[in-house]
Design brief:
20% strand, alpha+beta, 20 strands, 16 helices, Alpha-Beta Plaits, 3 domains, Endonuclease, Chain A, Beta-Lactamase, 6-stranded mixed beta sheet
Length: 546
């Protein structure tokens, strides 16, 4: 036997126009029909078919139980394994009407979703069939026309007679006593208004998801993506606050972005980061969606506000949280709102993962894998940027060229592994002795280039000598202490371009090498003059113009 959806479309092709909606939207439409019965306390005939879901929420179970009470004639087509069967069986009946449970007798009816309501003042129906091929959305029809509703009831009576004849007379009697005599315009308009608002909200949420997806596609800036996410979600759900935290990755600190509807949100922005940090600590151990609906008697403190927290997961790895909070103590979160948050969380989690992979690839392209210093390509780019800044701000810049002494002898005597270890320890010396604005690059082999912005040659000499001393403290087993020769050139004192500066610093380096190694040389001193470790001590008190 065909489904109710198919039967109605075949019989009322001109009156019914299928609309494609997400599963969560169809569930919300279903609830709107039920609310007419509950809010107006109608003693209506209600016939429902609900597709099987893994878990029924407590809210959904309570609503179905409430619908089955109050003397209504209620019939439920359910899968035999549905937990609602047990819940409806347990209702204590104070009236002469019991909910009738009709187990699905055929596989083709298992994915049906419909509600039919018949009352003296109101009639309505909604019907769809879940598409097993496309799991995103389905076509749905609804109507308030008494003749369409009566067609649905005739179909259902014929179906029950064929499949479950022992319930046929009960359903037929309920239909005879419940057919509408007049349609209440007020009730119908109320439902239609809700339907229109729901579809409008759904369209707005789909637009928000599309905007976030477009930003993810068009931007490589993670900060832009995250701020767009919280702004779009906050506006689409009309909440007081939407916040997002991304856990620390590699050398990047945790990132927090937030959206506030206004000052009336009653939420302190300074507290958002602290709240998300505590939530992340708990979510890292058990990354599951957490939510709390509001209540009419909620207190005024922020802890009582309704909220939803969704974890961000990539490859079963927790990477952050998305949280929405509303200041309406009576806010109840709908299924389609939860679906939006899950969808966005999945999108953003993938975007964060891609951004991390891109950053890693970029780092690998610009850094030396052995030492972690910049490579020659990125050195040249950084030197160009620093020289442009020096020209614009009328500030000096010094370049140090450094070469390990007797590095070939080290490799030949104790092996290349020891040589690699020496280079890594040398890079550690750079990180300990240089400022955050300085740049250390591996120029090639055991030669390194160090950029010192805002440094005259005198100040650069003090840094270079301190670094030389620090390097000489490093001991390599089987070889002894490391030593380095360093050449210094300054802009604009010794050169006016990048190439001239590199040539000058390199010349100073070889001058230091020729003078006996383990020393610092400044280009353009007479000779150029190189200073031995003994003579360099006399310059250690020079002012450092950095």
């Amino acid at each position: 036997m065909h489904s109710l959806f198919d039967a109605l479309l075949a019989q009322h092709v001109r009156q019914l126009a299928p609309v494609r909606c997400a599963h969560s939207t169809i569930a919300q439409l279903h609830r709107y029909f039920e609310e007419v019965v509950l809010e107006n306390n109608l003693n209506a005939l209600v016939i429902e078919s609900l597709p099987l879901v893994p878990n029924r929420s407590a809210r959904e179970t309570a609503r179905v139980r409430q619908l089955a009470r109050s003397g209504r004639r209620t019939f439920f087509f359910l899968n035999p394994s549905d937990s609602l069967n047990e819940s409806l069986d347990s209702i204590s009946h104070n009236t002469g009407f019991n909910p009738v449970l009709l187990p699905h007798q055929a596989h083709e009816h298992a994915n049906e979703h419909f509600v039919v309501i018949a009352d003296a003042r109101f009639s309505a129906l909604l019907a769809t069939v879940r598409n097993e091929v496309s799991s995103d959305d389905d076509e749905v029809v609804w109507s308030f026309e008494p003749d369409v509703v009566y067609s649905a009831l005739e179909y259902l009576m014929a179906r029950v007679r064929a499949e479950q004849p022992y319930h046929a007379s009960s359903l037929a009697n309920a239909v005879r006593t419940s057919m509408p005599k007049a349609t209440s315009l007020q009730l119908t308009l109320g439902v239609m208004t809700k339907l229109a608002l729901l579809l409008q909200e759904q369209a707005g949420r789909e637009i928000a998801v599309n905007r976030i997806a477009n930003t993810i596609r068009d931007s490589l800036e993670l900060g832009v993506i995250l701020q767009k996410t919280v702004s779009e979600v906050g506006a689409a759900l009309n909440v007081a606050c939407c916040a997002l935290r991304v856990e620390a990755q590699a050398e990047v600190e945790p990132l927090t972005y937030s959206y506030f509807a206004g000052d009336e949100a009653k939420l302190e922005q300074s507290e958002v980061a602290k709240q998300l940090e505590l939530i992340s600590l708990a979510m890292a151990k058990q990354p599951e969606l957490s939510m709390r609906d509001g209540s009419d008697d909620a207190e005024s403190e922020s802890e009582t506000f309704p909220f939803v927290v969704v974890p961000l997961i990539v490859h079963e790895r927790f990477i952050g949280v998305l949280k929405v909070t509303d200041n309406d103590p009576a806010r109840t979160w709908q299924d389609n709102e939860i679906l939006l948050l899950r969808t966005v969380a999945d999108q953003v989690a993938v975007a964060i993962n891609h951004a991390a992979l891109f950053a890693q690839t970029e780092r690998q392209a610009l850094t030396d894998p052995l030492t972690g210093c910049y490579n020659r390509r990125s050195f040249e780019m950084q030197l160009d940027r620093e020289l442009q800044m020096a020209v614009r701000l009328h500030q000096p810049l010094s370049l140090l060229m450094l070469d390990l002494d007797k590095f070939k002898e080290l490799n030949d005597s104790v092996g290349h592994d020891a040589g690699d270890s020496a280079l890594r320890q040398l890079a550690d010396c750079f990180r300990e002795e240089l400022r955050g604005v300085d740049t250390a690059s591996r120029f090639g082999g055991d030669e390194f280039a160090l950029i010192l912005p805002q440094a005259y040659s005198e100040g650069a000499f003090i840094v270079a000598d301190r670094l030389r001393r620090r390097i000489h403290e490093v001991k390599i087993r089987g070889f002894g202490r490391l030593a380095a020769s360093i050449g210094i050139a300054a802009f604009p004192e010794h050169a006016s371009s990048r190439s001239e500066l590199i040539v000058a610093a390199d010349a100073a380096l070889y001058s230091a090498k020729r003078a006996g190694r383990n020393r610092v040389a400044i280009v353009d001193l007479p000779g150029p003059e190189t200073l031995s470790p003994a003579n360099q001590d006399s310059l250690s008190n020079l002012p450092q113009s950095i």
